[in-house]
Write a structure and sequence with these properties.
single chain; 6-stranded parallel sheet; 14% strand; alpha/beta
Length: 350
Amino acid sequence: MSRSERSKRPRVLVARLDDAGDVLLAGPAVRAVRTGAREVVFLAGPHGRAAAELLPGVDRVIEWRAPWIDHTPPPVTGPQVAGLIEMAGGIDEAVLLTSFHQSALPLALLLRLAGVARITAISNDYPGSLLDVRHVVDESVDVPEAERMLAVARAAGFRLPAGDDGKLAVQRPLPDIAKFTGQSIGVGGVADKGAYVVVHPGTSAPARTWPADRHRQAVRELAGDGHQVVVTGTERELTAYVASDVAVDLGGVTTLAELAAVIERAAVLVAGNTGPAHLAAAVGTPVVSLFAPVVPAARWAPYGVPAVLLGDQEAPCRGSRARNCPVPGHPCLSHVTSEQVVKAVRELTQ
């Protein structure tokens, strides 16, 4: 394609304003947009920016904290809104990616004020002049989130290039992780693929969390089953407790890109429904998913990689979208045993 032909293509903003896992699941949609865009600008929230910077096809990331999406929403103020309008200047087109419980219309309104000429999004509410392409979906049907977002890109006229399998992906090369794993795992300072199991005990919501003592016991049993174990996460006190004296504790020391590299070398990741589970999918690592049914597994389970789901998917919290467990005793995950985790890891490694 000539430079003049490329210059005629639009500068497209792709928005996904919530957490890292949500942004990683937007990856196939981003790659579809990239085939028809001069530049892809990704609009992310503060919890999703690092993930957006890992996506193939993203040229530039801008960050904005959406008052209608953020878990601790800021007040709506004139300067805050003006900041987004200024950052969105020069954008020709926007593809707005949302979950079924989110509205794209507040962002569409602000982007109209920024002069964006063409906007595509899902909206079951009447959008008036806020959208040019209104993609309507049957919300009673659970579709994997990555496919839902890719469908929005298709509605806007963007399709994956030939040969793209539509799976999650991250930019290459990933960082060297020998400084984290070389002393304890692998040969010659570099860990071989499958040399260890990663256990990631933290989540962004308590309702999705398997108890810390269960994680700790699972680490001990995995070690007893012959696995080297690496514990990851941002909560250093939690990772130190879970790792105890039998695992490598990488709590609080990796960037998201470094975490991707650590997980890529793993045989299996053990994690809840949280960003690193989607990071594992993006680097092709199987997942033992400790999945609380507060959101549907059909939408949010690790996408495109072998996975074993543990947790009662019919528990009373099903579909509640709760961040804190609404059922005494947290039965959906508290009944999962460390023995079940070890068995699932065996299943995925044999």
